[in-house]
């Protein structure tokens, strides 16, 4: 017999994950995963150290304290919050909960690589709607892709990897046209780096659309990628359904404590985001000086469309790891001046 028989056909069809190339240079600046360059916040370090001795105990199964802190932060209700082991795991769980066999999930493309994998693993079919040329979501296209077969719709703002964010006015008009039977997942992993007019106010939209689920993570702005925690906000009826299929003790004890401490460190978090936003502006200006125009990034990365292996290799030579998507483009995280300088040298070397 073939070992392949163990798996469902859609699992066998999943693309293998291709990790970024590691260069020969050992003094590497990692700009491939959109991590926060700052070390864990002081309050997080203190809280985690203090709790290490209690690791013999299971965590709070319902993450009561963290959920309460999140609902306080969003002026929402505890019953409208679900937490998970990173927001990627929540996306997987939500799709498992709503996708029927062969059911369609409409999503923008190119976007977060995890989306099509999660759709396929849930037994659904991804309907990919190409982005506009400027890297933004094609909202009319997404809307017209919704059919009777649609089980969910994904939005990513700011979009990974192009960095372009939706405008509140456009999103509000869009949501008003999506049938309420279709759950809409709005992935706001990079929302804290947005610095523009008419920015999305998802807390307001949640109140108007019971089919909307807003996803946030502690991995980016809060600098907790290593501890794994994210959350979803939605109508209590939606959230009750999602909690029902949550992994028992899915958010570990240290993650719960760290996320609460991070949420209560808003001043430092905003200051750090400000530094990263400024670094992004500097990098975009420096790239423009090389005649390289990037989409209007509102995230902690920029998208160099049309660049491929030549840039990836030049970056490795300069000691920078970046994320390349075939010959479509290269995504580079922003935050460290040294990393930006190396990227600019790499760009100059291949022009
Ligand atoms: C990083 C990222 C997430 C969150 O990842 P977790 O670490 O699993 O919380 C979610 N969506 C997008 C688009 C991301 O880039």
Q: Tell me, what is the CATH class of the largest domain?
A: Alpha Beta
Which architecture of the largest domain per CATH?
Answer: 3-Layer(aba) Sandwich
Distance between the termini: 53 Å
State the CATH superfamily name of the largest domain. Answer: Type I PLP-dependent aspartate aminotransferase-like (Major domain)
As a percent range, the share of strand residues is 15-25%
Write out the distinct hetero groups bound to the structure.
Answer: pyridoxal-5'-phosphate
CATH fold-type name of the largest domain: Aspartate Aminotransferase, domain 2
Number of strands: 12
State the low-pLDDT regions, or none: none
* Widest sheet, order of strands: 2-8-7-6-5-3-4
List the total number of helices: 13
Give the number of domains.
Answer: 2
- What's the SSE pattern? HEHHEHEHEHEHEHEEHHHEHEEEH
Radius of gyration: 20 Å
**SS-based class:** alpha/beta
Fraction in helix? 25-40%
Mean pLDDT across all amino acids? 96
Inertia-based shape: globular
The description of the largest β-sheet is: 7 strands, mixed
Catalytic activity: L-histidinol phosphate + 2-oxoglutarate = 3-(imidazol-4-yl)-2-oxopropyl phosphate + L-glutamate
Domain Aminotransferase class I/classII large: 26-342
Modified residues (N6-(pyridoxal phosphate)lysine): 220
Subunit structure: Homodimer.
């Amino acid at each position: 017999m073939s070992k392949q028989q163990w798996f469902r056909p859609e699992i066998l069809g999943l693309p293998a994950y291709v990790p970024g190339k590691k260069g020969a240079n050992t003094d590497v600046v990692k700009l491939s995963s959109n991590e926060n360059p700052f070390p864990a916040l002081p309050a997080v370090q203190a809280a985690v150290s203090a709790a290490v001795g209690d690791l013999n105990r299971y965590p709070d199964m319902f993450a009561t304290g963290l959920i309460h802190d999140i609902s306080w932060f969003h002026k929402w209700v505890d019953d409208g919050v679900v937490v998970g082991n990173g927001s990627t795991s929540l996306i997987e769980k939500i799709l498992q909960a709503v996708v029927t066999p062969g059911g369609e999930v409409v999503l923008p493309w190119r976007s977060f690589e995890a989306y099509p994998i999660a759709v396929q693993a849930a037994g659904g079919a991804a309907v990919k709607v190409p982005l506009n040329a400027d890297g933004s979501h094609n909202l009319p296209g997404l809307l017209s892709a919704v059919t009777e077969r649609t089980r969910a719709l994904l939005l990513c703002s700011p979009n990974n990897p192009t960095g372009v964010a939706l405008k509140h006015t456009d999103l509000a008009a869009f949501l008003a046209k999506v049938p309420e039977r279709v759950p809409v997942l709005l992935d706001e992993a990079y929302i804290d780096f947005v610095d523009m007019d008419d920015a999305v106010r998802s807390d307001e939209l949640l109140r108007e659309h019971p089919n909307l689920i807003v996803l946030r993570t502690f991995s980016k702005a809060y600098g907790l990628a290593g501890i794994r925690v994210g959350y979803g906000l939605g109508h209590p009826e939606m959230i009750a359904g999602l909690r029902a299929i949550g992994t028992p003790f899915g958010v570990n004890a240290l993650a719960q404590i760290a996320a609460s401490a991070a949420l209560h460190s808003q001043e430092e978090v905003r200051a750090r985001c400000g530094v990263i936003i400024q670094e992004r502006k500097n990098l975009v200006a420096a790239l423009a000086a090389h005649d390289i125009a990037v989409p209007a990034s509102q995230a902690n990365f920029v998208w160099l469309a049309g660049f491929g292996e030549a840039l990836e290799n030049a970056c490795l030579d300069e000691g920078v790891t970046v994320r390349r998507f075939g010959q479509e483009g290269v995504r580079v995280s922003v935050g460290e001046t040294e990393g930006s300088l190396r990227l600019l040298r790499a760009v100059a070397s291949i022009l």
